[in-house]
Amino acid sequence: MDNKGVLVYAEQEGGKLHPICSELLGKGREIADKAGGALSCVVFGSAVSDMAQELVAYGADTVYAFDDESLAVFDPLVQKQNLVGLVSEAAAGLVLFGATFTGKAIAPRVATALEAGLTSNCTALELQDDGTLLQVRPAFTGNFLAHIKTRSSTAMATLRYRSVEAAVKDASRKGAVVKKDLQPVETSVKVLGKGEAKEASIAGADIVVCAGRGLKKAEDFAMVKQLADALGGVVGATRPLVDDGWISKDHQVGFSGTIVKPKLYIGCGVSGSPQHLAGMRDSGTIVAINSDPSVALFRIADYAVIGDIYEIIPQMVALLKK
Ligand SMILES: Cc1cc2nc3c(=O)[nH]c(=O)nc-3n(C[C@H](O)[C@H](O)[C@H](O)COP(=O)(O)OP(=O)(O)OC[C@H]3O[C@@H](n4cnc5c(N)ncnc54)[C@H](O)[C@@H]3O)c2cc1C
Q: Is the pLDDT score of 191 beyond 80?
């Protein structure tokens, strides 16, 4: 890193910070302290001053706040254009984003404008003693961990949710909040409307009950949902069920779906393909229910239940209801 500072993009929606912000600030603080630089943060939105104080409490030395009514609507082109100039103002050698839809919409645009190297979907970042930044991310559907060093003077990375420790909030921390004027940008993005999330997201869920092709028909998701509800969790699915239109894509666990890291994962009729394992192998406790004792999911499971999901799930629900 030529510059010693770290700049974190703080994602917010409707006045609420995304939980990944505290994780990015925790990692950013560690790297900035080791490099001997400052930790800055940038937030875009309407009425963001309370959030700016919260970001200071999570460890930011300086928060750049773009506060403008027009920012109530997310426009990656406007944010990108205003962010590009800030990277040198913050003397940032590293710019961090969450590997979320928002982070992934902005980071590549900023990287292209700055001709900076961007490593996406990192699960670990480490500033080495010689000052180089090591970026670790899964490759080949999670079978390898690639260790990447960036040659450009500014390094950029998106970090997966729940892959690093979150910073602890300290309301007594002091930092500077710098209000920035939003530079108008001609944009072709037009927001036609906003869909509401139908159910709790699987990405941040503590309990995921995941159905696989052991399910015989789409209607049987009701059985899986009963188990998820009884545990206070959410329903996930393997890709074939999504491809068949049985459930929406936002429920798909896996490499080409959502990476989950719940405290409890229960796979019901899931074989454990490499693409699926890449999306859930870091779960806390893994329970697998399958009629075939030789499946790959059993090899990483903490509890292996060999049997028919149509017999076992109703029994589990009945016991939980007691
Ligand atoms: C580029 C690419 C990306 C992919 N991305 C993903 C991804 O993100 N996520 C993903 O999940 N897949 C992904 N896949 C698909 C993946 O390769 C597998 O096809 C898929 O994960 C298999 O899903 P499954 O375990 O539900 O089905 P299967 O492999 O068919 O397993 C079904 C299991 O159910 C068991 N079973 C059947 N009946 C019962 C019963 N009554 N009771 C108990 N057990 C029963 C069987 O023993 C079997 O083990 C991807 C594939 C490719 C090529």
A: no
For the entire predicted model, the pTM comes to 0.81
pLDDT tens, position by position, 81-131: 999 999 999 999 999 999 998 999 999 999 999 999 999 999 999 999 998
Ligand 1, atom 12, residue with closest C-alpha: 239
Best residue among 244, 275, 312 to mutate for probing ligand 1's pocket (most ligand atoms within 8 Å of CB) is: 275
H or E element that contains 85 = helix 76-89
Residue 191 lies in a domain: no
Q: How far apart are the first and last CA of the chain?
A: 58
Of 222, 242, 224, 241, the residue nearest 233 (C-alpha): 224
Q: State the distance from the centre of ligand 1 to the C-alpha of 122, rounded, in angstroms.
A: 26
Give 203 Cα–ligand 1 centroid separation in angstroms. 19
Measured from the CA of 256, which atom of ligand 1 is nearest?
A: 8
Evaluate: CB of 309 within 6 angstroms of ligand 1.
Answer: yes
The answer on 129 and 23 residing in a single domain is: yes
Number of domain units in the chain: 2
Residue 47 has pLDDT above 80, yes or no: yes
Residues spanned by the domain of 272: 207-321
At residue 310, φ and ψ (nearest 5 deg) are: -70, -15
Per 3-state DSSP, the chain is made up of helix, strand and coil in percentages (nearest 5) of 30, 30, 40
Say which CATH number the domain at 142 has. 3.40.50.620
Mutate to test the pocket of ligand 1, among 290, 294, 299, 305 (most ligand atoms within 8 A of CB): 290
**Per-residue confidence band for 154, with pLDDT thresholds at 50, 70 and 90:** very high
